[in-house]
Design a protein that fits this description.
Shape of chain B: globular
Structural class of chain A: alpha/beta
Oligomer: heterodimer
Radius of gyration of chain B: 22 Å
Order of helices and strands of chain A: EHEEEEHEHHHH
Largest sheet of chain A: 6 strands, mixed
CATH topology of the largest domain in chain B: Rossmann fold
Number of helices of chain B: 15
CATH superfamily of chain A: Pyruvate-ferredoxin oxidoreductase, PFOR, domain III
CATH architecture of the largest domain in chain B: 3-Layer(aba) Sandwich
CATH class of the largest domain in chain B: Alpha Beta
Distance between the termini of chain B: 34 Å
Helix content of chain B: 40-55%
Strand content of chain B: 15-25%
Structural class of chain B: alpha/beta
Largest interface: A-B, 33 and 31 residues
Number of strands of chain B: 15
Largest sheet of chain B: 7 strands, mixed
Radius of gyration of chain A: 15 Å
Number of strands of chain A: 6
Strand content of chain A: 15-25%
CATH topology of chain A: Pyruvate-ferredoxin Oxidoreductase, domain 3
Order of helices and strands of chain B: EHEHEHEHHEHEHEEHHEEHEEHEHEHEHH
Number of domains of chain B: 3
Strand order of the largest sheet of chain B: 3-2-4-5-7-6-12
Distance between the termini of chain A: 30 Å
Helix content of chain A: 25-40%
Strand order of the largest sheet of chain A: 2-3-1-4-5-6
Chain lengths: 193, 417
């Protein structure tokens, strides 16, 4: 089983991201379960959503306390929420930011993990460019496809098409594709370093 | 056809396949997505003939369902929590009149304090209202139970409540196998009411019945529920023949054949319990699970048989009879062949508290060791409780409990679990 936890703020499409990821997993023939942390949804409030992927049916209903991967849609949460709580030692982190782990003050923390699995991507900027709105979720899923190899960019794109009307879907797919390329490049550099 | 959809969307589609003729509902979380989905199907002309009636309250929702059902229509509604309580009088009436309404209850806690999260207090508060109550373990079973519910309701002229855990199931995306219209039509015949309000052939429904026959009418309601105990397994097996999968029935057993300890539960928590039991079995613990699918009528004989080899029984329930303890465990104790001393109640998940494998393992291990209390509150923060009790001992004007306990706790918005 591969478990993904997505942190963001109300209005950033956190829950939708988990749902789209589960549809992408389903399209690859896997069992997938997506669910939100059920709060009173308010714009800007911290929101968590979860997605499990497995080759067999998923029965577990507890929140994901020990994720294999973290997607952080809003870097301002780093100082507010224990976003890294329970992350597996060989886990993946993808943060939406134009800054580096060092610039975020996470250098020491990141040193405990595998460098090629720690990535940042300016998903909000990419979303503004393609979608015209600061909704980083699709771009982050593109980046997640690159960093984790759990899911293909094609499946993410197909899942986005299933969820959104054509025009919105194509813009989000363009954002996902650019973020995928960005993260792929970043991983290459990390592997060389 | 296999689909990856939200539980509410799956249920809406399944209900539509059952060809309801009147749908009436008042929105309340976490049920709302179900009737929104049905409303879209009706307005798009994809569900005809069907009238979607917006009502001003849950009391009106059930009253409209009663009227529609009495006029011979297949009627459906959905609610949760305070909504179910608000319609309670009409809920009893629907059962007393023998009207086969199907209602989804997206299980949610009851206030005060106000809480939108999942537990079973809402449905269990209505356990003696005369409705059949079925509990779904996952979204596949939730959609399947709705198809079975219409058939059961209409055959017996008894209303059926399909209970599914609010948020945990209603808002979860997971794989479901959506049946075809042909399969549902083959399973569910058109509604042929025993009683119908028809201006061309006038009758009255809802007579006042005095002491001379009231007991008999109530007895007949009980007798019908006992009849359901025979029909439910038979129709689950017919369901398997048409749809090709196990769904419904009275109970589901898991690893109980050699089990010394059996955990009994309802609803979606069964999945987490089974994963916990698998891990404990790897250590050699002889533990099994009994899922109650049909809570009303209470399947005494099936429960008694399933627990016949159990030395200890742990009932894990998302409900609390304040001042007594367990509700489900009280029913289980009555059916269990052994001593009530060997039945343990674990109250868990109230108001949406997460139920984790770690905590379940701890209480199940305690049951194995014989150190489990007869009534346990899973992951109760005793220090928080003690602070309130201490304050109440020390001073008179302590103010409202909920506000005080939140102040003691500090900000929790950022908690993950």
């Amino acid at each position: 089983m591969f478990q993904v936890r997505i942190h963001g703020r109300g209005g950033q499409g956190v829950v939708t991201a988990a749902e789209v990821l589960s549809v992408a997993g389903f399209r690859e023939g896997r069992h997938a379960q997506a669910f939100p942390s059920f709060g009173s949804e308010r714009t800007g409030a911290p929101v968590v959503a979860f997605c499990r992927l497995d080759t067999k049916p998923i029965r577990l209903r507890e929140p994901i306390l020990a994720p294999d991967a973290l997607i952080i849609q809003d870097p301002t949460l780093l100082h507010q929420v224990d976003v890294f709580g329970g992350l597996e030692a060989d886990g993946y982190i993808l943060i939406n930011t134009s800054r580096s782990f060092e610039e975020l003050g996470l250098e020491d923390f990141a040193a405990g993990f595998r460098a090629e699995r720690m990535c940042t991507v300016p998903a909000t900027e990419i979303a503004l460019k393609h979608v015209g709105r600061p909704l980083p979720n699709a771009a982050l899923l593109g980046g997640f496809a690159a960093i984790s190899s759990q899911i293909s960019l094609e499946s993410v794109s197909a899942a986005i098409r299933e969820k959104f009307p054509t025009k919105v879907a194509e813009a989000n797919i363009a954002a996902a594709t650019e973020a995928h390329a960005f993260v792929t490049q970043e991983m290459r550099e990390a592997a060389r370093a | 056809m296999l689909k990856q959809v939200e539980g509410s969307a799956a249920v809406a589609e399944a209900v539509a396949l059952c060809r309801p003729q009147v749908i009436c509902a008042y929105p309340i979380s976490p049920q709302t997505h179900i009737v929104e989905g049905l409303g879209k199907l009706v307005s798009a002309g994809q569900l005809t003939p069907c009238e979607f009636i917006n009502v001003e309250s849950e009391f009106a929702a059930m009253s409209v369902a009663i009227g529609a059902s009495a006029a011979g229509a297949r009627a459906y509604t959905a609610t949760a929590s305070q909504g179910l309580l608000f319609m309670a009088e009409a809920v009893f009436n629907a059962a007393g009149l023998g009207l086969p309404i199907v209602m989804t209850v997206a299980n949610r806690a009851i206030g005060a304090p106000i809480n939108i999260w999942n537990d079973h207090t809402d449905a269990l508060s209505q356990r003696d209202c005369g409705w059949i109550q079925l509990f779904a373990e996952d979204n596949q079973e939730a959609l399947d139970l709705h198809i079975q519910a219409f058939r059961l309701a209409e055959q017996l002229s008894v209303p059926v409540m399909v209970c599914m855990d609010g948020f945990i199931l209603t808002h979860a995306y997971e794989r479901v196998d959506m049946p075809t219209q042909e399969q549902v039509d083959a399973y569910l015949p058109p509604y042929d009411p025993r009683q119908v309000l028809d201006p061309a052939d006038p009758v009255s429904i809802g007579a006042m019945v005095g002491p001379e026959a009231f007991m008999e009418v109530r007895y007949l309601a009980h007798a019908k529920q006992r009849q359901a105990l025979e029909l439910i397994p038979a129709w689950a097996s017919e369901f398997r023949q048409i749809f090709g999968r196990e769904s419904g029935g009275l109970t589901h057993s898991y690893c109980i054949d050699d089990a010394d300890i059996v955990v009994v539960a309802l609803g979606s928590v069964l999945g987490t319990i089974k994963d916990t039991v698998d891990a404990m079995r790897e250590r050699g613990v002889k533990i099994g699970v009994l899922g109650i699918t049909c809570f009303r009528p209470w399947p005494s004989a099936a429960v008694r048989a399933a627990l016949s080899g159990a030395k200890r029984v742990v009932v894990l329930e998302k409900s609390l009879a304040v001042g007594l303890g367990g509700i489900v465990s009280n029913n289980v104790s009555a059916a269990y062949h052994g001593s009530a001393d060997d039945v343990y109640t674990v109250v868990a998940g109230l108001g949406g508290r997460s139920i984790t494998r770690t905590s379940l393992t701890r209480v199940f291990d305690a049951a194995v060791d014989g150190t489990l209390e007869h009534l346990t509150f899973l992951d109760l923060d005793t220090s928080l409780v003690e602070r309130v009790l201490a304050r109440e001992r020390e001073q008179r004007h302590t103010g409202p409990i909920a506000e005080g306990i939140l102040r003691d706790l500090g900000v929790v918005a950022a908690k993950i679990g």
